[in-house]
Write a structure and sequence with these properties.
- The complex is a heterodimer of chains A (356) and B (265).
- With 356 residues, chain A is of the alpha/beta class.
- Chain A is built from 14 helices and 16 strands.
- Chain A has helices at residues 8-18, 33-45, 57-70, 80-85, 87-96, 123-128, 144-161, 171-174, 221-240, 262-266, 287-293, 309-318, 334-343, 349-355, and strands spanning 4-7, 21-26, 50-53, 73-78, 100-108, 114-118, 137-139, 164-170, 177-180, 204-206, 245-249, 255-258, 275-279, 281-283, 299-304, 323-326.
- Chain B has one domain (3-243): Rossmann fold (3-Layer(aba) Sandwich), CATH 3.40.50.970.
- Chain B contains 7 helices and 8 strands.
- Chain B has helices spanning 22-36, 71-81, 93-99, 101-110, 155-159, 175-187, 213-223; strands spanning 43-47, 62-65, 86-92, 115-120, 166-171, 192-197, 225-226, 238-243.
- In chain B, α6 (175-187) links the parallel β5 (166-171) and β6 (192-197).
- In chain B, α1 crosses α6 (175-187) and α3 crosses α4 (101-110).
- Chain B is globular.
- Classes of the chains: A alpha/beta (356), B alpha/beta (265).
- β10 (204-206) of chain A pairs parallel with β2 (62-65) of chain B, so a sheet runs across the interface.
């Protein structure tokens, strides 16, 4: 296929299909609805691809878990409020070790918030949204081409890690149109890793803590810790192979900008004046990379569409204060970035003058 | 083969209390499975949270022990991806009609080929005996010491909003009738719901005046009656089946036999 104009949301559906997805369930919610609609259109012409517009996001999340157990690579797409409703099911998928992909197209929250405005306020929700301890793997592309690429990688990673993998997007990226040649993006596809239901086994896929024979292990700390450590080790080991990030711009600058998703694109005109670290794998946090790169810079600044969610993670990893440029209320623009940097005293004089 | 081969008897005794009705349901299900040739290569069990949820763990099948209330989305997706499979849901009344109520409404509407066995003990047994969605009005429970305030949910009426769905009412006392209802439900080419009155002696029955499970079974024997042949709706404490028309068998506006409130225009 030649180059074509493609929207971020459409690219994610194409990536899922390329990765071998056979089942989508979802509920309409801006700004993710184009993924649901594209999935429905795809199902209409590809009977092997199953589609459900479910009654809510809770059903959607549980349906994709059932579909994956039954043998289909499966995914859903939603936005903040729906993603909140899916959290229990995400924990369940972690417990069951079921490969699934959850796309979260972020808008401004909390609650119904600002449904069509871009935000990045689900960073911590993707890590800690469900109850209990679990190890999340989350990717955040920052172009339409990457929406395609990292959706495929998310499916691959879900199979390898046997866990629900999240792909973050935002209202801006979701509706961004860019020229992409998806055929030029070659990502090998990982085949299914889970034996489908009714293959002759008598397995119990239980959200309740159980022993391997299915008996309850609801008061056995040793068994809990054994299973938890095993799942954590598997996820961390697999995530190592997906440690994607970008490091560049003016690497000799004194200040390192940390930005991801659409924010990195917005900040592009700052490239001559700052170094850039862009995590693509948001979780597990790219601790080793941050610890290797950050000491080269006098100042660090996290520019993000939340009030310091990722900044707080960077501080924890580096044991060091970072400057924050929060882009709130959907005001995700170069102007807002400049203002934020100026407030933090980080705007180079030549840029400050240019802005006047 | 024997029905006992469908059950993991090595895990016995079960966690269910002495006198619980769930084991009777599991036994009848296993017998029907044996009759119909259901095995681990053609059947999947999905169970919800509550005492009934343990049923899948005791059966020789791949089984999904779903989140509280979420059996139906899981089961429907399995049936969608693998239409050749028999998908059997075992769930309590609280799981399927309260926390899972929205999924129940929409599963009925979409009419997937799944079989639901609802262990309807009119109580939240596992959590100690709180009022549930099917608890009769006035019943004293640990969360309704002055008597349950609201009327129970009308499961038959809900199921019959889809003229293609199947509803049967039975009790754990009426074993033969229960077996027949489960068999017919599994063979039904759409959504089939078997509403099984079942005793919870420990966390309900004793508190409302039954000395033992035996008296609860005798209560079912005494109080429940077969519905007259040809009934299109079951009255309270009537046993029987309300069959819709299998989807696609006839135009939706023609024919009889669907229950009241079949949704026909």
């Amino acid at each position: 296929m030649a180059k074509r104009l493609l929207q971020g949301n459409e690219a994610m559906l194409l990536g899922a299909v390329q990765a071998g997805a056979g089942y989508f369930a979802g509920y309409p919610i801006s700004p993710s609805s184009e993924i649901l609609m594209a999935a429905s259109a795809h199902a209409a012409t590809h009977p092997e691809f199953r589609f459900l517009q479910a009654e809510d996001e809770i059903a959607s999340a549980n349906a994709i878990i059932g579909a994956s157990l039954a043998g289909a690579k499966s995914f859903t797409a939603t936005s903040g409020p729906g993603f909140s409703l899916m959290q229990e099911a995400i924990g369940y998928a972690h417990k069951l070790r079921v490969p699934t992909v959850f796309i979260d197209v972020q808008r401004v929250g909390p609650a119904t918030g600002m449904p069509t405005m871009p935000g990045q306020g689900d960073i911590l929700q993707t890590r800690y949204g469900s109850s209990g301890d679990y190890t999340s793997i989350v990717f955040y592309p920052s172009s339409v081409a990457e929406c395609y690429e990292y959706t495929i990688r998310a499916f691959n990673c879900a199979e390898e890690s046997r866990s629900p993998v999240v792909v973050l997007s935002d209202a801006f990226l979701a509706h961004l149109n860019e020229v992409v040649d998806v055929d030029a993006i070659e990502v090998p596809v990982v085949p299914r890793t889970l034996e489908p239901l009714a293959s002759g086994s008598t397995r119990l896929f239980s959200g309740v803590a159980t022993y391997p024979d299915g008996e309850p292990a609801t008061a056995d700390a040793d068994e809990y810790i054994r299973q938890y450590e095993l799942a954590k080790a598997t996820r961390l080991e697999v995530a190592e192979r997906y440690a994607f990030y970008e490091y560049g711009w003016n690497v000799d600058a004194e200040t390192l900008v940390i930005a991801f998703g659409i924010t990195r694109r917005i900040a592009q005109p700052l490239a001559p004046h700052f170094a850039l670290f862009r995590p693509i794998r948001i979780w597990p946090v790219l601790q080793d990379q941050l610890r290797a790169i950050a000491p080269r810079y006098r100042r660090l600044v996290v520019i993000e569409g939340s009030d310091g969610q990722y900044a707080s993670v960077v501080e924890r990893v580096l044991y060091r204060d970072v400057h924050r440029v929060p882009l709130l209320g959907g005001r995700m623009s170069l102007e807002a970035v400049r203002e934020g940097l100026d407030r933090a005293g980080l705007l180079p004089p030549e840029l400050a003058e240019a802005a006047v | 083969m024997s029905y006992k081969d469908k059950i993991k008897t090595d895990l016995f005794p079960t966690i269910w209390c002495p006198g619980c009705g769930i084991g009777l349901i599991m036994t009848q299900l296993a017998m029907v499975m044996d009759d119909l040739g259901l095995d681990k290569t053609n059947t999947v069990i999905v169970t919800g949270i509550g005492c009934t949820g343990r049923m899948g763990a005791y059966m020789q099948f791949d089984s999904v022990y779903a989140l509280h209330g979420r059996t139906l989305p899981v089961a429907e997706a399995i049936a969608t991806v693998r239409p050749e499979l028999n998908v059997i849901v075992a769930s309590g009344d609280g799981d399927i009609a309260s926390i899972g109520g929205n999924h129940l409404l929409h599963a009925i509407r979409r009419n997937p080929r799944i079989t639901v066995l609802c262990n309807n003990n009119e109580i939240y047994g596992l959590t100690g005996g709180q009022t549930g969605p099917t608890t009769p009005i006035g019943t004293k429970t640990i969360s309704s010491p002055a008597g349950a305030t609201f009327s129970p949910i009308n499961l038959q009426g809900l199921v019959n909003t889809n003229p293609n769905a199947f509803y049967a009412k039975t009790t754990v006392y009426h074993q033969g009738q229960m077996r027949k209802a489960i068999k017919e439900a599994i063979e039904w080419p759409g959504f089939a719901f078997v509403d099984i009155a079942s005793q919870c002696i420990e966390n309900n029955g004793r508190r409302i005046g039954f000395p033992s499970a035996n008296e609860m079974l005798n209560f079912y024997k005494k109080e429940y009656r077969q519905a007259p042949p040809g009934s299109t709706q079951l009255a309270n404490r009537q046993l029987g089946t309300v069959r819709g028309r299998p989807a696609g068998a006839e135009p939706a506006s023609v024919g009889a036999g669907a229950g009241k409130g079949s949704g026909e225009a």
